[in-house]
Amino acid sequence: MKNSLCLIFCVVLVLCATQGRAQSTPNTLDIVGWNIEWFGASFENPPDDNLQEQNVKKILRYLGADLYGLTEVVDTMRLRRVVDSLGPDFRYVISPYGSNNITGTGASWLNAQKLAFVYNRTIFSNVTARGLLRGSTGNAYYNFASWRFPFMMSADVTINGVT
């Protein structure tokens, strides 16, 4: 099933690429959610981290969205290079927790799958982000994927002068 979805995604990308432009427009708020599967994890598939980074850069540039919600970010420095490649208008925020790590520290955090938002700062202002249910009493983290609480971003959004 996973390979079938990957093939379908690749076919859609090829078909879209032949049209010559992405769907985003200046008058809309364009949002993309993407599981980038162990992004930058040298110990997991895909095996070529450099190729994975280049492909993520290509796809994000092509889509031209205003906000990307990314899951399974392992290498935060690779994510920084991806965001830097989008130009000076883009910023990012990474969850201070990850799979099997709720502290945001130590070697287990470095190898954890984290959540991230990449956003266009000319559209998003007053950005804050937090883990929902993080710090709640009990074992709420067991209800989610390997301690990855939902990650919420709040911001003011301005399009065509309207906030």
Plain-language structure description:
- The protein has four helices and six strands, in the order H-E-H-E-H-E-H-E-E-E.
- The radius of gyration is 17 Å and the shape is globular.
- Helix 2 (49-63) links the parallel strand 1 (31-39) and strand 2.
- The strands form two sheets. The chain has a four-stranded mixed sheet with strand order 1-2-4-3, with helices on one face. It has a two-stranded antiparallel sheet with strand order 5-6.
- The chain starts with a helix and ends in a 6-residue tail after the last strand.
- With 163 residues, the chain is α+β, with helices and mostly antiparallel strands.
- Helix 2 (49-63) runs parallel beside helix 3.
- The model is unreliable at 1-18 (pLDDT under 50).
- It has helices at residues 2-19, 49-63, 76-85, 106-110; strands at 31-39, 67-73, 90-94, 114-120, 124-131, 151-157.
| Largest sheet: spatial strand order | 1-2-4-3
Can you give the helix content as a percent range?
25-40%
SS-derived structural category: alpha+beta
N-end to C-end Cα span = 41 Å
Biggest sheet features:
4 strands, mixed
Structure in a nutshell:
This protein is α+β, with helices and mostly antiparallel strands and 163 residues long.
